[in-house]
Amino acid sequence: MSSILLAVAVVAGIGLIAGVGLAVAAIVMHVPVDELVEKLTGALPGANCGACGYPGCEGYAEAITAGAAVNLCTPGSDGVAKALAEIMGVEAQAVAPRKALVRCNGTHANCKQSFEYHGEQSCAAACLLYSGQKQCNYGCLGFGDCAKVCPHEAIYFEDGVARMDAARCVGCSMCAAACPKNIIVMKETVGKAINRCCSEAPGAVARKQCSAACIGCRLCAKNCPEDAIAIENNLAHVDPEKCTGCGLCIAKCPAKSLIMS
Q: Who contacts 210 (Cβ-Cβ below 8 Å, separation ≥6)?
């Protein structure tokens, strides 16, 4: 009986010492909570998407206290910007709207496949095998890694290629981060031409792989009245600052890879 009581006493003593140690550590290692950061974090949507350029909502809140603008939260839009401005006692600024766009038109009908893929239904997994089943190494693989992380169900698929529902997209950029091909871009401008193709393969190769591929033919650049298009790495790039949205480049593009954003 005495041995049992001794064991209980030893365990209780260890527990007491550990408890005192933890209490002391909590006092010594206590980090003061910044109430302003707490208020700002509470006003943010909590998506922790990183679209603002900072590591999560708390990281953005800390940045605001250090002088960052209050209008960088795309998912929260103007409502959150106004709330942040009130907390900081500054003038509210409008949030520049951003929408995701998949830069690929390599549908089943347009883009050829090198082989049939039967592995894990994931773009990241498929990429590990010869960069995926499509002949075009830049093409959307269509397994939906982007859709799986979209918190607003803004992504759907059209003939094997991911597409965005602009009405649902809040510009959080989580889909862009999840895409192993890096072909999802966040666009801030509307009514501007953009090249939906990302292939930098030489024109003859690109066209052999995908009938909708940009071949760098320069017809768009030659017909642009604002000199807003440059050809780099066999690919047409549109400068949104110069583009007026006249649509001449889209009309002249033989592959129809240029679209209006």
A: 105, 106, 110, 111, 112, 135, 136, 139, 197, 199
Residue-wise pLDDT tens digits, 95-110:
888 899 999 999 999 9
**Could you tell me the two tokens for 82?**
């106004």
256 neighbors 247 (Cβ within 8 angstroms): no
- CA 219, 222, 225, 227 torsion: positive or negative? positive
Residue 109 DSSP one-character state = T
Domains and CATH numbers, the chain: 35-88 (1.10.15.40), 98-188 (3.30.70.20), 190-202+209-261 (3.30.70.20)
Dist CA 230 CA 241 (whole Å): 13
The whole-model pTM stands at: 0.75
162: its two tokens? 């991911």
Tell me, what DSSP letter sits at residue 229? E
- Comparing 208 with 1, the larger pLDDT belongs to 208
219 three-state secondary structure: helix
Backbone angles phi, psi at 260, to 5 degrees: -95, 125
Residues 6+ away with beta carbon under 8 Å from 255: 197, 207, 211, 212, 213, 214, 215
Please, which residues have CB within 8 angstroms of residue 245's CB and are 6 or more apart in sequence?
191, 192, 193, 260
DSSP conformational letter for 52: T
